[in-house]
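Query form — protein Carboxymuconolactone decarboxylase-like domain-containing protein

QUESTION: What is the three-dimensional structure of this chain?
INPUT:
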Amino acid sequence: MNDISAYKELTGAVSVQMRAMRASQPELMAAFGQLAAAGTKDGALCRKTRELVALGIAIACRCDDCIGFHVQTLVKLGTTRAELEDVLGTAVYMGGGPSMMYATHALRAFEEFSP
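ANSWER: The structure tokens for Carboxymuconolactone decarboxylase-like domain-containing protein are given below.
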């Protein structure tokens, strides 16, 4: 993981920089926001399922920042540890050893963001 050891701190630090980018790159950030909204809204799959898929991709891509934000959202959406672990298992199946390491990061983030 980055030099930042806690996911709440990590997502907070990234959010600060994203706000700065919104000020300097408003069109880009507005387009990214629209992309995120379109990619996570309810459709044939519910928002929670889409976020679980996004988490699996974040693990496969080894993006700690993405893991933090998607896990934070999943906790808010009421995801259970069992649901999370099923997604982690699939991510490990598809990505092997490196995905196993990042799956443990997602578990740590889940524990941190859970009440």
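ADDITIONAL NOTE: The chain has a mean pLDDT of 94.
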